[in-house]
Amino acid sequence: MTEPSTGRWVYFDTEITNSSGRISYSIPKEKRLGVGVYPIKMVVRGDQSYAMSYLTVLPRGMECVVFSIDGSFAASVSIMGSDPKVRAGAVDVVRHWQDLGYLIIYITGRPDMQKQRVVSWLSQHNFPQGMIFFSDGLVHDPLRQKTIFLRNLMQECHIKICAAYGSMKDISVYNVLGLSSSQIYIVGRPAKKYQNQCQFISEGYAAHLATLEFGHHSRSKKNNSWMILRKGSFGLHTQPEFLRKRNHLRRTMSVQQPDPPSSNPKPERAQSQPESDKDHDRHLPPMSW
User: Fold this and answer.
1) What is the four-CA torsion angle of 216, 219, 225, 229, rounded to 10 degrees?
2) pLDDT at site 215
3) Cellular component per GO (predicted)?
4) Residue 171 contacts residue 188 (beta carbons within 8 Å)
């Protein structure tokens, strides 16, 4: 959909998937898209079932804040439970960075087959909109995959990471990327081994948010991310009907559009997206809105 506001689909090409039901496709130069977010619909010719996703085209030098989903947000060990609790104040911290105009990037070492569950959890807790990146299938070293992916974002797509959140496991990832200790925020009790490599969030997100607000009170807001991703949360209730169709294609789970929550979400504060991203025709690993 090259012009999402019209709701009109534009045919691009026909491709054959591999044995895993995946395809890799590069948009021809003559069909190059401008900066923005574009719905993508992949239809099986035989039974007309389809998979939905989004392509996000970002400008060079986009500034972002990275959040490791499991390390930053979940108060329980795993978000694979029925409804693991979110760390108090986590949503407000993410929103603070969004309000300043930074692009929010959520990253996880989980395989893309868990996309629907993870995105539904973020939506239920009203996390601000951002781009979500998963591992491409099951991997033995998820930290290495995170490192490779984020490095590609920085080197090939010229994304600038201004701050990064996670657990102590993520410190090595952020260090390899060249982030300074003042840019790395780690949730949990301080560890002497890492005290010079990061900033520990040991008193909770509420105290951390107060510190951020004090330090950012004179910082001007950036408008570049708002021009691309509409400000708001992950809830899909306000999207047009053509973005909420429910016919999913299991073979391409990594690019499925998540179901809207079946019941009213319980946001942490009341007031309180894509298979690939590209900058200059660069395509990235599995992601979602």
Assistant:
1) 50
2) 83
3) cytoplasm; endomembrane system
4) no
Domain limits of the chain?
59-225
Q: Locate tokens 């998937």: which residue?
A: 17
Nearest residue to 60 via CA among 228, 211, 273: 228
Residue 135: half-sphere exposure toward Cβ, Cα within 13 Å: 17
Q: What is the DSSP code (8-state) at residue 61?
A: T
pTM of the model: 0.72
In the CATH hierarchy, which fold is given to the domain comprising 59-225?
A: Rossmann fold (3.40.50)
Question: Which H/E stretch holds residue 72?
Answer: helix 69-72
Distance CA 59, CA 66 (A): 17
DSSP 158: -
Among 67, 66, 38, 70, CA closest to 54? 38
Other residues' Cβ atoms within 10 Å of the Cβ of residue 45: 6
Instruction: Decide: helix, strand or coil at residue 257.
Output: coil
12-46 confidence digits (pLDDT tens): 999 999 988 888 889 999 988 888 888 899 999 98
Where residue 277 falls among pLDDT bands split at 50, 70, 90? very low
Between CA 43 and CA 285 the distance in angstroms is 20
- CA dihedral angle for residue 110, residue 124, residue 164, residue 172, rounded to 10 degrees: -30
State pLDDT tens for residues 199-257. 999 999 999 999 999 887 646 556 555 556 656 566 544 343 333 333 333 333 334 44
Residues forming a β-bridge with 90: none
**pLDDT 10s digits, 34-90:** 888 888 999 999 899 998 888 888 888 899 999 998 888 876 655 455 567 889 999
Among candidate residues 182, 207, 186, the one with its CA nearest the CA of residue 89: 207
